[in-house]
Amino acid sequence: MAENLNVARLLDDIADIYEMKEVRFKPRAYRRAAQTIRSLGEPVEDIRDRGELEGIPGIGRNIAAKIVEYLDTGRIEKHEELKKELPVDIDELTSIEGLGPKKVMKLYQELGIRSLEDLKEAAEEGRIAGIEGFGEKTEKTILENIEFAKNARDRFLLGYAIFESDRLISALGDHCSRLEVAGSLRRKRETVGDIDILAVSEDPGKVMELFVSMEQVQKVIARGKKKSSVRLDSGINVDLRLIEDESYGSALQYFTGSKQHNVHLRTIARKGGMKLSEYGLFKGDKLVAGRNEEEVYRGMGLDWIPPEMREDNGEIELAADGGLPDLVGIEDIRCDLQMHSTWSDGKDTLHDMASRCRELGYEYAVITDHVGEIRVANALDLNRIRKQKKEIARIEDELDFRIIQGVEANIRKDGSLDVEKELMEEAEIVLAAVHSAFRMDRKEMTERLVNAVSSGDLHILAHPLGRKIQERKPIDVDLDRVLEAASDAGTIMEVNAFPERLDLNGYNVKRALDAGVRLSIGTDAHMREHLGYIQLGVSTARRGWATADDIMNTRSEKELLRALGK
DNA sequence: GCCGTTTTCGGCCCGACTGTTTTCAGTCG
Question: Which nucleotide is nearest to A183 (CA to C1')?
Answer without folding.
Answer: B29
